[in-house]
């Protein structure tokens, strides 16, 4: 069965500290993984996707097929990073996007 | 600002009543989606449509219905068969060149039961 697990409901860090938001997935085929973010009073939007191998706003995520993980990382958190983060998965060529339950990141000054 | 427009922002349903949530997009996207968001459960897919006049059930389609008569519009009806309709509903669209494209989301509709 397809499943995305984000084990932490809330992650609180101080400004300047490293951040790692965990995402584990279960999928039998070749997955495509994404991170979506929702800032306060804004719409849910794409942050990054693993096929692009990009760094957005200092965030990176590496797909580890052996550990079935796609953790989101940033070396130095900023207060403006405070938001709700969702990991999502789809099969290659599929329109069906499955979301995790989300992790709220709170960056304190 | 264009993009995807959901209306209304808040909606109340009486017992046994069907209600329809509107979703319109001006992005010329082929694919459209409806998600339900409950606290602590993330987003769950209700229905999605890849092209006009075609749609597929998602993971929690029971008690819901959709139509896709126009490319720009993908309304969701919450029927009386949906026993727990109170939730935040999000509509999204994507270019749909074979899946895995970036989803653009609306601002959502909060549905509550009176």
Q: Provide the β-strand percentage band of chain B.
A: over 45%
End-to-end C-alpha gap of chain B = 32 Å
Indicate the low-confidence ranges of chain B by residue numbers.
none
Helix content of chain A: under 10%
- What is the residue-averaged pLDDT of chain A? 92
Quick one: how many beta strands of chain B?
A: 11
Order of helices and strands of chain A: EEEEEEEEEEE
Q: Give the distance, in angstroms, between the N- and C-terminal Cα atoms of chain A.
A: 41 Å
- What class do helices, strands and sheet pairing of chain A give? mainly beta
Number of helices of chain A: 0
Rg of Cα set of chain A: 13 Å
Helix content of chain B: under 10%
3D shape of chain A: globular
The major pleated sheet of chain A works out as: 6 strands, mixed
What can you see in these coordinates?
Chain A is mainly beta and 109 residues long. Chain A is 0% helix and 45% strand. In chain A, a hairpin with a 6-residue loop joins β9 and β10. The radius of gyration of chain A is 13 Å and the shape is globular. Chain B has 114 residues and is an all-beta fold. Chain B has no helices and 11 strands. Chain B starts with a strand and ends with a strand. Chains A and B meet through β6, β9 and β10 of A and β4, β5, β9 and β10 of B.
């Amino acid at each position: 069965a397809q499943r995305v697990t984000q084990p932490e409901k809330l992650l609180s860090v101080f400004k300047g500290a490293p951040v790692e938001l965990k995402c584990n997935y279960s999928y039998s085929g070749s997955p495509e993984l994404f991170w979506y973010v929702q800032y306060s009073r804004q719409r849910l939007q794409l942050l990054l996707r693993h096929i692009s191998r990009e760094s957005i706003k200092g965030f990176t995520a590496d797909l580890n097929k052996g550990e079935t993980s796609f953790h989101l990382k940033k070396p130095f958190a900023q207060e403006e990073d405070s938001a709700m983060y969702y990991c999502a998965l789809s099969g290659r060529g599929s329109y069906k996007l499955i979301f995790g339950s989300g992790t709220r990141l709170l960056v304190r000054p | 600002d264009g993009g995807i427009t959901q209306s209304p922002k808040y909606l109340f349903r009486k017992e046994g009543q069907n209600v329809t949530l509107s979703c319109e997009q001006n992005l010329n996207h082929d694919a459209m989606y409806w998600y339900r968001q409950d606290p602590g459960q993330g987003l769950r897919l209700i229905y999605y449509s890849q092209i006009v006049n075609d749609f597929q059930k998602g993971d929690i389609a029971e008690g819901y219905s959709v139509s896709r008569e126009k490319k720009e519009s993908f309304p969701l009806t919450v029927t009386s068969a949906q026993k727990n309709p109170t939730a935040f509903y999000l509509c999204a669209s994507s270019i749909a060149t074979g899946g895995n494209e970036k989803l653009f989301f609306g601002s959502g509709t909060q549905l509550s039961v009176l």
